[in-house]
Each structure stands twice: as structure tokens, then as C-alpha cells.
Amino acid sequence: MSRPDLSPHLVHFTRGETDEEAFQTLRKMIAERRLNGNTNFIKGQHRCVCFTEAPLWSVENGLANPSAYQRYKPFGVMFDKTHIYTLGGRPVIYQADEEYALLPDSHKWRHVKYEPPVIDWTWEREWRLHRDYLDFTPTETVLVIPTRDYANRLYGEHEVEQYMQVLQYSQIMDKLLAIQHSESFSWRIAVLQE
User: Which pTM value belongs to this model?
Assistant: First the structure.
């Protein structure tokens, strides 16, 4: 069944005080090919990699709730939901804090405090993967970028890095051989504002 409010993907969005800071965080993730888990806002200090299942059309300006509270920027790494599920990722369990103790230890990492109308994080549509980090490759991910300008920056900065690498390798080997060590930009990109 196809529904516009559901997505077959999960996105790990970046944070930052500014778009530039969030963009640099994304570049670091790409360079390391790793998403690091954290314990922020997770009762019991369980380390998790967090995602949203909100469809891309609903996050054009970043993942924000109806009150315009914006904790994330519109830069991220998107995975197929089935892939994360296979790795053990699950949707969080929104419930009262006193119900946390009722969960078996194996599920406590999924708890999110829910006490409407004051505490309601359901707009995040959060999924978690209970682990310290998640390594990823270009074949299993799509980069989420807010505008074509940022996408062009990613392409351009990659080209500059490859050019500099060829120059460095040229110091110790033949230039034609050094060129063979350069890599093409292999990431797929989804631009939110086309």
C-alpha cells in the first residue's frame, strides 16, 4: 500500500548552528564513511545511531515540528529502511517515562518520553540503531542536500581533493600512474529544493 506520509527510507540528518556547519559535518561523515552513535536524549545512556522516517518532501527546510522547532539541518545520509531494519534498527517506542521500567532490557534503547501535550517528539518519527557507529558506502546510501548549490560544492570540492591527491602522488610516481589513483564522485544525491 502506497501512502504519501510513509517513506521506504530513513535519513540521518546533521546538526549545526549554521547550514555551513551542518554541511561540514556531512562532509566529515562522507570522508569517514561512518555515522557515529550518541547517547543524547536517550534514557539509560544507550548509544544509538538515529534516523527519521519522515518522507523527504516533508523535510525540505529541515526536520522541524509544527512549532518550527528545528534541531536538524537539511543535510543527511539516507538509507533503505529495510537495510537498517536488517541491521537491527527499529522505530522508537513513545511512552510515559514510568513505563520505561516495564520494557525488557533488550528494548530500553527504544524508549522516548511521551507526555502530551507538553512532551511530544512524535514529529521526529524516529528510528534507532543500537550500536556505536554505522559504516556506510556510496552503493547503499543517498546524500540528502538542501539545494543544487550545495550539491555542486560537493562535486567541486571532491574534484579539488582528487587534483591535490594526484599532485602529491606525482611526487613519488609517474603522473599517469598517479591519475589512475584518483576516484570519481560515486555518491548519489537527493536535492530537496530543485
Answer: 0.89
